Amino acid sequence: MFRLTMLPAEDGDCLLLDYGTEEKQHHVLIDGGRTSAYTAARPYFDAIRARGERIDLLVLTHIDADHIEGLLPLIADERFPVEVAEVWYNGFDQLSGLELYGPEQGDAFSAALKARAWPWNTAFGGAAVVLSNGKPFEVAGPGGLKITLLSPTRQALAKLRATWVEYRQENGLPAAEPEVPAGLEVYGREALEVTPENVGALATSATSVDRTVPNGSSIAFIAEHEGRRLLLAADAHPSDLVRALRDHNGRTAREIHLAKISHHGSKANTTKQLVQEMSALRFAISTSGARNKHPNPEAIARLIHGRPAGVELHFNYRTKFTEIWDAPAVTGAHGHRCFFGSSDGVISIDV
């Protein structure tokens, strides 16, 4: 088995990767979503304990609130039911060896992680999880999992460290979350109408690309098990992913069997160039649509327009921003299929 479960993380990511045999499974937890996600995820951790297993790897991809919030109650829970064998996370100490949005939560997680004494970035000698010479490279994961690191670069982490230093110097953060720039993510209260006729225009429309510092620091990677390849893009910049995938693929296009697309389906992170480079037909999109109205229609249009038949869209939430892609006229015109999670926002996908 090789299965990705998207847990109800609201507008964020809380992903559980399970693989192995029915008798012996391995588990990788990627991010924690919003605070409420921990309560929703707790039964899954209890089930891992009941099997006598552990979380083999916990990856905090970056310090945006919609990825880190749910891990704070997890790491603070003295009754957390399972062993965590390894943590990948770029905290301030790891960035110090390099020559944010959310540094306060990042510092809190670092302090709690030190108190827990869970093994931290040991696969990287305790230093930062970062590309070697700017190139993707393989890391041996638990239970025979092969991991190919795609992001972040040293330059991206250096920018994050500068922001984090500024935060520490100022010794405080604004109470309110910053506004999302109008025109980049926000469409207003209603979802943009999608018709069979306008999907092509959405797919080819010119949009700004993501250059935000925290997203650029994302730990993004390919996980491979028994020949099946899963792309976990976190919120990585599209240009970084394109560059890394080209370096990784070389002259041979390597199929991605499932891609968890970057930044919850933001049009600024899913470019036509990236879609082409991924060589994937199955996509996972994790978001409730809260705050930023994700997924953006341009991003989803790029996944289906002019693509081979058989594209699959897996959404953990059914919202007005996702169900528009399941309209019979739209699926009939573009040949894709939509899958939605349960009413509480959980969906499991076999890679």
TrEMBL record:
Q: Which Gene3D superfamilies match?
A: Ribonuclease Z/Hydroxyacylglutathione hydrolase-like (3.60.15.10)
Residues in domain Metallo-beta-lactamase?
23-143
Q: Does the keyword Hydrolase apply?
A: yes
Which sequence ranges are marked TM in the entry? none
What GO molecular functions are on record for this protein?
Answer: hydrolase activity
What's in the keyword line of the UniProt record? Answer: Hydrolase
SUPFAM superfamilies in the record, alphabetically? Answer: Metallo-hydrolase/oxidoreductase
Q: Which PANTHER family match?
A: DNA INTERNALIZATION/COMPETENCE PROTEIN COMEC/REC2, RECOMBINATION PROTEIN 2
Protein name from the UniProt record: MBL fold metallo-hydrolase
Species of provenance = Hansschlegelia zhihuaiae
